[in-house]
Every structure is written in C-alpha cells, then in structure tokens.
Amino acid sequence: MEFDVVELSRLQFALTALYHFLFVPLTLGLSIIVAIMETVYVMTGRPIWRQMTKFWGSLFGINFVLGVATGVTMEFQFGMNWAYYSHYVGDVFGAPLALEGMMAFFLEATFVGLFFFGWDKLSRVQHLVVAWLVAIGSNFSALWILIANGWMQNPVGAEFNPMTMRMEMTNFFEVIFNEVAQAKFVHTVSAGYVTASIFVLGVSSWYLLKGRHVELARRSITIASSFGLASALSVVVLGDESGYDAGMNQKMKLAAIEAMWETEPAPASFTLVGIPDQEARETHYAIHVPYVMGLIGTRSLDTEIPGIEQLVEEAEERVRSGLIAYDALMTIQAEREKTSDTVKATFEEHSDDLGYAFLLLRYLDDPRQATDAQIAQAAEDTVPTVWPLFWGFRIMVGLGFSFIAVLGYFFYRASFKGMQFPRWALRLAVVVIPAPWIAAEMGWIVAEFGRQPWTVDGILPTAMSVSNLSAGQLLLTIAGFSLFYSVLFIVEMGLMLKYIRKGPVQDEEITDKWMEKHSHRLRTHDGNVPGATPAE
Fold first, then answer.
1. Which of 174, 299, 314 is nearest to 247 (CA)?
2. Can you name the residues that pair with 253 across neighbouring β-strands?
3. CA distance 106 to 64
4. Cα 375 to Cα 307, 333, 457, distances in angstroms
5. CA–CA distance, 129 with 439 (Å, rounded to integer)
6. Rounded mean pLDDT of 438-451?
7. Is residue 271 a contact partner of residue 299, using CB atoms and an 8 Å limit?
8. What is residue 454's three-state secondary structure?
C-alpha cells in the first residue's frame, strides 16, 4: 500500500487536534463553573460552597494539565509537518498564536498555581479574583486560537506579496474582528460550558444514586442545570450565526453539509436525513423541511443557496483566472523590479484567484501547461467528501437539542420540585456524560474537514502546505503520538475516576467554625442571646 504524505500529515494533525479537543471544552466550562461556585462561597460564607469549589477545581486542574501537554505538542506540528504553510502565512497566523501564549497561557498558568495553593494565604476576595482570572485566561486562550483558525476559514486583513511569495498582514483589527472567528469563538466556548455542565450534572447524579455527598450533589446540579441550560440555548443561536457566516463566506462547505447537489429555488429546504451519494450526485431517501436552510444560510426567503454543481462551475472559472495571475507572478519573479506596470496590473486584477491555480500543482509542475481536463479536475477537487460533513453536522445538532431537554428537565426539578430527582433521570444524566464530547468532535470535524482542499480557504491548498518528509517518517511519528496520547488518556481517566470516587474532602475546622457562628446567629435571631435580660 502506498501512503500519501499529504494524507498522512492530515491524519497526524487530525489525531492530535481531536485528542487535544477532548480537554478544551471541559477546561473552558469548569473554569467558569468553579468561579461561580466560589463567588457564592464568598457571598454566603457557607463551607459547602468552598468544598464544592475545591472539589470541582481539582478535576479542572487534572484536565488543565493534560490539556496543556497535548496543546503544546499540537502546535509544534506547524513546524514539523506543515513547514510551507508556516512559511507562506506565518506573518499572519503567528500573531494570534503569540498573543495566545503571552496573554492567555501565562495568565492562566500563573493563576492556576495561586488557585490551588493560595487558599490559606489569600483572603476570600483575593482568591475569588484568582479564580476568575483563571477562567478569563482559559477563555482568552480559546479566543486567540479561534482567531487564528477563523482566519484560515475566512482570510481577511492580509494580502499576497508577489516579491516575497508570502501572505502579509495588512490590517490586524480585521484579523481580530473577523466575523467567522468571532462566531466560532462564542459557539465554541458555549459548547464548552455545556460540556462542563453535563459533566457536573452526571457526576452529581452518580453521587445521588449512591447516596453520597448529597448536599454537594444537589447544589452542583442546581448550578450545572441553570448555567448549562442558558449555554445550550446560546449554542443553538450562535450555531445559527455560524451557518449564516458559512453561507456568506464558505458556500462549498455549506452545500456539502446540506448535500445540496443542485441549486434550489429560494428559500432552500433543509435535509433532515438522507443518504448522500457523491458519485451519483444524489441524496437517497431524503426528508426535506421547507424554508429552513434558506433562513439559516441567507436569513431571507428570496435568496438562493448555490449547489455543489454550480460552485464547481464557478471554481473552474476561478482556476482559469488564477492561471492568468500565476503567469503574471512568474514574470514578476523573473523580472523583479523591472516588471512592467501592465504585468503588475494583470496580477492585481486576478490575484484573488491565484490559490485556485495552485490546485493544479497536484497534477503538474507548471500549472500553465494544464489541459482542460486537468483544470476541470482541479475545480472538482474543491468539493470535500460530503458524507462526513452531512452526518457529522446532524449528529452534532441532534445531540445539542437533547442537551437542552436534559438540562431543562433538571433545571425544572431543581427550581420547582425541591431538588428531588427521579432515579431514572439520575441514571440518564450519568449515561449522557460522554455525549457533549461526541458533539464537540463532530463540530470540529465539520469545521475543518469542510474546508478541504484548502489549508487557508481559497488561498493555499493543503497539498502545498506540507513539509518535505517521507511517508516512513510520518508513520513513525503517528505511532509515537498515538502511543503518547494513549498513555495520557489512561492517566487522565484514571485520575478523574480516582478523584470522583474519592469525592470532596470536608474542611472540618472551617465547617465547625461556621456552624458555631451560624448557631449563634440563629439564637440571636430568636432573641436568646447569652447574657441578655429576658423581655418583660
């Protein structure tokens, strides 16, 4: 069997990214939930909330440490496996990553230590500030990473320099406030909040089934169900925003998610289920919901969404336009400062389509020698494999609505039924714990797989981005990463299960002091204050 270097590089990055993303959602969500719990502790002074903060904080710490280990390894791959990508767009892509390291990672890592070791050295308010700084640092980390990723999906604020053969940043604020990046950020962090809420809900339900740590479990369910329900509802709203952005900026991705082979009259219907057949350009046994896709993709009832066939035709036109830009680029590279104004103007006119000409480098060294058949094939290559996107999106959406139902039910029971939960509901909460991770991984697959064949959409094909490595070297590193990550996964699961079984540790001294003060307040409230003269 012959292994392709591009596919092996993609496989390695996919494995490390998907594994790293197992830790990210729980880190994002638990950091906020823990900060909320400590806020309640500072406001009320009740030891049970301190106990909850320390217990869930310990689980956050385990997840955080292993998440950092896998994240650092993943970023090294830009230099290892994607050297030309790093060279081509490093001026743009490197800035958010550097800011993530300086502003987010060090902020988060510094205050994590204070959070765990500062309980007896900081005042309540000081420690609360630390908890919120940890949460802010975690979310800032996601912000900068998703700004970098959002630029790959919608490359704004940069332009290609024909003299250096690199993308160069022209507007930093356009990169930061890229609409795709901002939509991805709020959608991703909200999904992380749902993941942590389901996790807290499930673990707390397990404690109630076992009759252990009942007070902690009930209060944790109250926090998780209310925070999680608000987050789950926001995921739906923010997911709609991502769909609209895809309809505006990544039309091929949206058409592939919907398996929309032909352009439909406006407003387009949404395919609820079906079996996409990419070879036949048909979706078998499709069930359609009228108008819905038109509203999601265009927010109107009179704007059509282009189908895959139409987009392939447009891609072929862009390949031909890109060839004009490529020819002008080769002239500029040869003549440098002596290049005529006519050639420069020609390049500027067609430069937006240069990346489409690069698609031909997969088939021949000089794209200008391409035949009509090769140009048509390059245009066809802009269609990603449809079935993973089609089903990944529907699994993600289906699970998302199920989370609303589960969290809504527990919120109702916690708010209006005295925190009394049926055993069947508690068992369901335990079973559903892995589901948010499945939804998150499906979302990541849809976002990244749907961008193919581009590393940077419309700018740099994936086939151009790889390092000059052999298949053997890649197979060796894939085996090494798989072994390393398998060990980390076993360590993560072992530690998490150990601490969950062990449960929270009660601080008896603080609890006794609080109970003594609380009893005194009750006696004072009843008028039975020691030493007071009885009322006549």
1. 299
2. none
3. 13
4. 20, 24, 18
5. 32
6. 90
7. no
8. strand
Confirm if 186 and 435 have CB atoms less than 8 A apart.
no
Structure tokens, 342: 């006519």
Q: What are phi and psi of 301, to 5 degrees?
A: -110, 5
What's the Cα-to-Cα distance from 495 to each of 59, 183, 338, 502, rounded to whole Å?
Answer: 9, 34, 65, 10
Locate tokens 């280990």: which residue?
69
pLDDT beyond 90 at 481: no
Are the C-beta atoms of 343 and 283 separated by less than 8 Å? Answer: no
- Phi-psi bin for 276: left (phi > 0), alpha (psi -120 to 50), beta? beta
Q: For 229-284, what is each residue's pLDDT tens digit?
A: 999 999 888 776 777 777 778 889 988 999 999 988 888 888 889 999 998 899 99
Q: Residue ranges of the domains in the chain?
A: 8-257+382-511, 264-298, 308-381
What count of other Cβ atoms lies within 10 Å of the Cβ of residue 495?
Answer: 17
Other residues' Cβ atoms within 10 Å of the Cβ of residue 408: 15
Written as six digits, the tokens of 225 are 């169900």
CA angle 229–232–234, rounded 5-degree value = 110
Q: CA 305 to CA 83: how far, in whole Å?
A: 36
The crossing angle, in degrees rounded to 10, of helices 471-502 and 5-20 is 10
Tokens read off for 313: 């035709």
Q: Please answer whether residues 197 and 410 qualify as being in contact, where contact means their C-beta atoms are separated by less than 8 angstroms.
A: no
**Rounded-to-integer distance, Cα 386 and Cα 258, Å:** 9
Could you tell me the CA-to-CA distances from 21 to 60, 437, 439 in Å, in that order? 15, 9, 11
Please name the helix (run of DSSP H) or strand (run of DSSP E) that holds residue 63, with its range, or none: helix 47-80
The Cα 446–Cα 432 span in angstroms is 22
Amino acid at 356: Y
Is 484's pLDDT higher than 80?
Answer: yes
Whether the CB-CB separation of 489 and 499 falls below 8 Å is answered with no
What are φ and ψ of residue 456, in 5° steps? -115, 120
Of 35, 169, 201, 170, the residue nearest 89 (C-alpha): 169
**Is 526 a residue whose pLDDT tops 70?**
no
Per-chain mean pLDDT for the chain: 87
Secondary structure letter of residue 449 according to DSSP: H
Bridge-based pairing state of the strands 270-277 and 282-289: antiparallel
Residues present in the chain in total: 536
How far is residue 386's CA from residue 389's CA, in Å, rounded to a whole number? 5
Token pair 């068992």 is found at 427
Tokens encoding 362: 């997969």
Q: Label residue 226 exposed, middle or buried (CB < 10 Å: 0-12, 13-18, 19+).
A: middle
How far does the chain reach from its first CA to its final CA, in angstroms? Answer: 99
CA dist 513 and 104 (Å) reads: 38
12 vs 30: CA distance, rounded Å: 28
The amino acid present at 396, given as its one-letter code, is: M
- Give whole-number Cα distances, 24 to 27, 349, 401, in Å: 5, 42, 21
CA distance linking residue 247 with residue 152, whole number of Å: 16
E-assigned strand segments in 389-489: 454-456, 460-461
